Amino acid sequence: MSPWPAWRRLLFRFTVMYVGLYMSPLKWAGGVPLLNLGGNYYSMGESWLVTLANRHLFHVKEELVPFNGSGDTSYGYAQLCLFTLLALIGTAVWSALDRRRAYDRLSYWFLVALRYYVALVALLYGTIKLFGQQMIFPSLSQLATPLGDLLPMRFSWLFIGYSEPYQFFSGAVEVLAGVLLLWRRTATLGAFVATSVFLNVMMMNLCYDIPVKLFSIHLFVFSNLLLLSDARRLLDFFVFNRPTQPKRTYAFTSRRARIGWLVLKAGFVLFFGLLPLYRAYQYSQPEPVAGKKPPKPKLKAGFYEVADFRVPPAFPDSLRWQNVVFEEEAAGSIQTPDTLFRQRYRRGYFSYDLDSARHTIAFRKFADDSLALFTLHIDRPDTNRLLLRGLFRGDSLTVALRRTNRHFQLAERQFHWLSEANR
Questions:
Q1: Are 154 and 181 in a shared domain?
Q2: CA angle 401-407-408, nearest 5°?
Q3: Residue 244 CB coordination number (10 Å)
Q4: Which of 175, 217, 237, 359 to pair with 165, CA 20 to 30 A apart?
Q5: Residues 123, 175: contact at Cβ < 8 Å?
Q6: Domain membership flag for residue 294
Q7: Does residue 423 fall inside a structural domain?
Q8: Structural domain tally of the chain?
Q9: Could you tell me the residue range of the domain that residue 117 belongs to?
Q10: Any idea what DSSP says for residue 394?
């Protein structure tokens, strides 16, 4: 075992400390029985420490916004600062106490842990893409939204969600990377695939302002760390045209240790590979008839033009309804900037409850809201016309809607081997 230069020892210590904090098993072991309780306490302690450090040191933002579907919140950046600070302190303490000149064995097991972490993420994200559950085909409301009103993130999401085969392909490559990383013999090939996959993900997030930039950058860097451990062998093979030596590995000597390792590996594959695959498959299947709840009454889905919109003269013209979309589920959207609704891309989204006996429709901002925003009386002169009447914002409202055969070319899912013109 040859001694490492000082810069390499320092860099290795910092990397181990930082990556260990970032990929702490207690944070992602919530789905494993008996470990979820420890994971909850760990997350609570980390949240307290991040908030405390931000208040006294980092000042990223006065009130941190936690992770909420976005991984690039102020909390995420404060967490990044804390991990960097703790890793620097840990490196200094480690360097002061440890006089070893090399870390070959520790480096090997550190890379094994990192390899399994990257495999875990690739398997989880790849699995939901296999069943088209991450990016969804554009809804009727989204098809009715002008392209220029979409934000780059939503535009990219719909771009991938439009094509189920492309999303399946993306997921299959991620799953392939995860599977290859699970076995030592294919780990280098898996690192190549993972690096390519997460480079594409990182660039999508950076170029389309998708709020998972920090996470994807980490995954790309981690994948490169796996390749970096094989840098000399890869350069000899691909660049210098020289023979390479087999990679050094460390095997368990006792039978009990080997069995324990196989059990841990089998548990990892079960909880983070097979179970997510099974759950995604179950979610994609139609609900059994025996377990179905009675269907809620719904209006006929489609695009409705506003044929008549009667309100008092004082009602602002800017809030008038331009068109209404009712989706297949009990939800829809209105082309209006009215903030009474859930605003997304200049459309007001809502959920509704239809009472066929009382001939009323109750509009809600979210499906699980206990109180309705407002309730209108509804008449249906025929299958394609609706008449809504009642109080809206304290004033009387009468809206006549007419269902039209609004045709969206994007919904056709076109494909042509032969294209005689640039379409």
A1: yes
A2: 115
A3: 14
A4: 217
A5: yes
A6: no
A7: no
A8: 2
A9: 6-284
A10: T
Per-position DSSP letters for 43-73, written without gaps between them? HHHHHHHHHHHIIIII-S-SSPPPPSS-S-S
275 and 342, same domain (yes or no): no
Rounded CA-CA distance 339/199 in Å is 38
Domain boundary among 233, 255, 284: 284
Summarised one tens digit per residue, pLDDT across range 149-208 is: 999 999 999 999 999 999 999 999 999 999 999 988 899 999 999 999 999 999 999 999
Residue 230 CA to residue 124 CA, distance in Å, equals 26
214 domain residue, yes or no: yes
Question: How does pLDDT run across 306-355, given as a tens digit for each residue?
Answer: 999 999 998 999 999 999 999 999 999 999 999 999 999 999 999 999 99
CA–CA distances in Å: residue 411 to residues 42, 142, 323, 349, 408: 46, 11, 19, 20, 6
d(CA 9, CA 231): 17
Both tokens of 377, joined, read 């009386």
Based on the fold, state whether residues 277 and 314 are members of the same structural domain.
Answer: no
Task: State how far Cα 256 lies from the chain centre.
Answer: 39
The domain that contains 336 carries what CATH number? 2.40.128
Q: Is residue 371 part of a domain?
A: yes
Backbone angles phi, psi at 377, to 5 degrees: -80, 140
